[in-house]
Specification:
Layout (H helix, E strand, L loop, with lengths): L6 E5 L7 H15 L3 E6 L5 H6 L3 E4 L14 H10 L4 E4 L2 H12 L8 E6 L17 E4 L2 H11 L6 E3 L16 H11 L8 E5 L8 H9 L7 E5 L7 H12 L6 E5 L4 H6 L3 E4 L9 H8 L4 E4 L4 H4 L6 E4 L4 H13 L1 H18 L2 H19 L7
Parallel strand pairs: 1-2, 1-4, 2-3, 4-5, 5-6, 6-7, 8-9, 8-11, 9-10, 11-12, 12-13
Helix pairs in contact: 1-14, 3-4, 7-12, 10-13
Amino acid sequence: MVAGTINVVQLLPELNEGGVEKGTLEMGAFLTALGHRSIVISGGGRMVRTLERDGSIHVNWPHIGEKSPRCLKYLFPLRAFLLRERVDIVHLRSRLPAWIGYLAWKSLPKKKRPVLVTTFHGFYSVNAYSAIMTKGEKIIAVSKTIADHIESAYGIDAERIIVIPRGVDENTFNPDHVTAERIQNLKARWGLPNDLVPVVLLPGRVTRLKGHDVFLKSLSMISDLPWKALIVGEINTTSEYTRILKNTVAELNLKERVHFVGHCADMPAAMALADVVVSSSTKPESFGRTSVEAQAMGKPVIVSAHGGSLETVLDGKTGWHVKPGDAESLASCLREALTDGDLRKMRGDEARKWVAGNFTVRKMCEKTVALYEILLSRKGNPSAGR
């Protein structure tokens, strides 16, 4: 156990939207609540205000995540920053900033180097560029699926890897803490009627990997049932994929039933107004945060049966597993979920208990800080515990 203040620097490209960004904010808030010093270096974004409100220091380096030679200008400033601020932990969370962080760290005399930790957040392409995420003295994997990937793809000793699942804020994603007014505000904004028509929610960025096309096809197979579907997440209105999806909606005669609502700042309320939540990813999720958030809100989930979703969703207990890319399988599960309210409630109740016991922010942060302390103790870091 390391006594005193720990200075932690987290590096990532930006702070706009996504699981990596949320985890960074959550870790920062937890560190400052414990009296430690949290510094985040990024190119900025809409989440900076929240980060600073919760006590972290933000250092805005606009090109730190830019894939151009301009990012190299931060190498020596970062080296000087680590020395000046007497940083104890450097936590690298994304590949390009990780290269800058690693090279700055490597250039320091060994006795003055902070502890270096990396987190594998996803199935990065296997190459020399991605291998930077294996350079940590300890490598955090967000799921056992990712830990297995690191071992098999990079030949890393299992002892260097620790599985620390992502977590959800049990206070934020708590149905008891979401007011009827918040739900009603979203309904009004999204043009949802105040009736009892079931709502199916697909959260996540609108990209090919999330399987929106599979989702739309499955909806066309249950058009005889009453429902509304919401696709919630950042959307590029000029992209080819968006155009294809909009055309698919029209071709399947779903215009009046499917709504692309874009970014949502109140995801707990969005989950609260849903009856069932879907993750139809065509490629394995490294963890599947939105599915865990939905379960924390007491919602049953339907997920593609691969990747981290196999670990976070219990088939037949907290939700359903479906064959990836199989619209018919997804439609069958949707039909069962939408026609059996008692089953939805039973699985939703189990889902909430499952998340509370296994996937909370507090558990994630406690395990990460414990790792920091163990590594600092082993190092005998003279700057820790000031």
